[in-house]
Specification:
39% helix; alpha/beta; Rossmann fold; 14 strands; eight-stranded mixed beta sheet
Amino acid sequence: MPHIDRRQALKLLAALGATGLASACSIGTGDDPDDEGLVNDEPVRIGLIVPQTGGYKPIGDEMLNGFQLFLDSNERRLGGRPVDLIIADEGETPESGQAAVDSLLNQQVLALTGVANSAVMLAIRDTVEEARVPLIGSNASPRSLQSVVYIWRTSYVSDEPGLALGTYVRRQVSADGEVAIVAADQPAGRDLVQGFREGFGTGDERISAPIIWADSTPNPGRDTFTEPVQEVIARDPEAVYCFFTGTAAVEFIRQLRDAGYERQIYGPGFLTEGTVVDQLGEEATGIITALNYSVDLDNSANLRFASSYRKRFGAPPTTYAMASYDAAQVLDKAIRTAGPQVTAQELNLALGRIGQIDSPRGPWQFNQPRTPQQKWYLREVLRDGPVLSNVLITELATLG
């Protein structure tokens, strides 16, 4: 059934008069499952917060790509309404992230999405809650972000990759072996270490050595990781669990290999996401990670998503792109559920009623803390035909 907007409906009612009132009122209220009632065709204004400068820009580019892909596949509409997408640069500091949020709120957006950096997410928490504008975060999700009403996340909680992987690694390391833990000293790093220790067993002697904290800069130099690498080499552990992303991941792994470490490296999936494997080449071979997404997942949603992403951007999608694509899916369903005269507060209520998302990672839905209940997968960097890639090995756990 074709839709009519509110203004058209009022004109129709006036033309019909009292004798036609009953039949006119039946418009948009039939049994057609696709019938959504009167439609407001005014654009919805959405604010997308992603790094466009600084060391986190590659992650921001992936997040932007994922959101844009959903819009392009749906006639640039969310919930049936045209979208006015406003992009704000998150940068790489809490201050730049706060400025981006303030700018978008001043432009009266219906909802916010994005946010790459956990430090930024923690800095903007109170601003978002006080503004009563929903934020559908698509990457950063610190463990300490609790008791929020307007902040939802389509990614994960930061300790979950370590939690899923820790249980696996515990079974792989010999009874008298040591696992050295190395991580960037930042909120996400601390969460990922805590999750790994809990999954492995906090009292296990094999992870009892002090954690090696490293510089958290997203733009490290050739000597940035000299001290942590030297400490790893001095310990000579059976395995290393580490957390870095992007350029920092490339530099740390390269410096560790150059120093002579040839044993097993584990990490959350971010360690080898994006262009990291391409930059490292053979040095990445054999690295094992845990993530909520793998590009080779065999489900219909992922086949469509991965194919469309490759065609549009010339590269395989990452978890960053997937979670941002899902954030657009979530907004699409919530705006449709909220109805034609949606407000930010009504949209927030609708987010709790959207049910299951048919995601490239597999079906998931929001749990009570407003994060996904989802599966986690084990991946290994292996040669897949002519290229090295993160190859899906097995399913690890369902968390959330």
